[in-house]
Design brief:
The chain is built from 14 helices and 14 strands. By secondary structure, it is an alpha/beta fold.
Length: about 425
């Protein structure tokens, strides 16, 4: 079990097992910013955005998706970190994002088959199994990876981690949730290989373990390495809670520094909280029950992300001992000063309005749960304040004007 006793305050610092100290318990979870330039390097807007969050008092921030392979993009304006990247532009970003004592980690990702069909005609995945539940319309059926390609992708994760350290990020996070490639390998429904990379739960775990080991070798023992992991896929034949707990325990034994708990995939999007049990609404956090259970199996520090809206709910989650950090995403897109405000005011609450234009067909096309919040990020990237009263129609119009029809293709988180 974790030797550190749960602290009562959101402002309590925390020391990871490798000695890295985080100034408070508030964690900005990754959100897709869509602020890469034409060569998939960071724009100056990313520096502006993360400086704003750092000024707001956050302790630890994850970047949005940073892709490890420029031939495998999840979205048109993804940032990519590889040997051809401009590290000076990354250093501008990390310098801004580490002001005010904040940590900024790079979230490293490969989308696998979750590449929109207007970006890739033939994506790759553990097995040649198409996405379902309507997603097959926007995503092409993948080709199964050859073993040498699997090894190559593992090497790309390690290269991106090494470059992230050189660029000034203070840690890295493997994106192992939400149906991306690592998540695909873990899922029996998506990984039906018969070689050592699939079949049994142990074999399906092999990819993420090898990715972690390669990254650790590339960055050393003192550089933080974390993972975002599903508590479950919430799908028949998907990654189960029992399998998730086994992966958590194994990664803890391997020495991973921090595990962020999420859940769901884009076929079953539990991470956006569209359906919640009454007990979840009362406790705010979507995955706190799972965290309490997995806490009994590992002493690795845990983050629970999704659903937090009040200082009281955040504090109670920490006091319960279920998690060590409170993960925040959409709330800090609307209130970048949330950390400072919640620390100062124990009665702090933020209410996020339900988003709708009033026309269901437009809501579905516009994907307001993504684009409305994305526009708030773009405002901060342009050194403006978020606009919590911005109309849904305005978000629709602005996003269309800024990115055209591509803004409304299938999107990721």
């Amino acid at each position: 079990m974790n030797s550190q006793k749960p602290q009562l305050g959101l402002d309590s610092n925390f020391t990871l097992n490798n000695g890295t100290q985080i100034k408070n318990r508030l964690f900005k979870s990754a959100m897709s910013e869509q602020l890469g330039d034409r060569r998939h390097n960071p724009t100056k807007g990313l520096a502006n955005l993360y400086r704003r969050w750092a000024e707001g008092g956050i302790g630890l921030m994850m970047s949005g998706n940073i892709m490890i392979d420029r031939k495998a993009l999840g979205e048109p304006k993804n940032v990519v970190l590889d040997e051809t990247s401009d590290l000076e532009k990354f250093k501008t970003w990390t310098k801004a994002g580490t002001e005010n004592g904040a940590h900024l980690w790079a979230q490293l990702n490969h989308p696998g088959k979750q590449i929109p069909n207007f970006i890739s005609k033939e994506p790759v995945a553990p097995s040649a199994i198409a996405l379902k539940r309507g997603l097959e319309k926007g995503f092409n059926k993948p080709r199964a990876l050859e073993e040498h390609e699997i090894i190559g992708i593992i090497d790309k994760f390690a290269t991106a981690a090494r470059l992230a350290k050189a660029a000034g990020f203070t840690g890295v996070q493997i994106h192992g949730a939400h149906g991306y490639l690592v998540s695909q390998f873990l899922s029996a429904g998506h990984n039906q290989r018969t070689d050592k990379w699939g079949g049994t739960a142990e074999n399906r775990m092999r990819f993420v373990i090898q990715v972690y080991r390669a990254i650790r070798k590339a960055v050393g023992n003192d550089f933080p390495v974390g993972i975002k992991l599903n508590s479950a896929d919430f799908m028949k034949d998907g990654f189960s809670e029992e399998e998730s707990m086994a992966v958590v325990q194994r990664l803890g034994e391997e020495g991973i520094d921090l595990i962020e708990i999420s859940g769901g995939t884009y076929e079953a999007p539990a991470m956006v909280g569209h359906t919640q049990k009454e007990s979840t609404r009362k406790r705010e956090a979507y995955f706190l029950d799972y965290a309490e259970a997995v806490r009994k199996t590992t002493d690795t520090p845990l983050v629970v992300t999704g659903g937090f809206r009040s200082a009281q709910g955040m504090t109670e989650a920490l006091q319960s001992g279920a998690c060590d950090f409170v993960g925040l995403a959409r709330p800090v897109a609307v209130d970048p000063d949330l950390p400072n405000n919640a620390i100062k005011n124990p009665r702090y609450e933020i209410n996020l309005k339900p988003l709708t234009t009033g026309v269901k067909a437009v809501d579905k096309m516009a994907m307001l749960d993504i684009t409305w919040y994305e526009f708030q990020l773009w405002r901060m990237a342009d050194k403006k304040s978020p606009d919590p009263n911005m109309s849904e129609w305005m978000a629709f119009a602005k996003t269309m004007a800024g990115a055209g029809v591509y803004a409304f293709r299938k999107r990721r988180a």
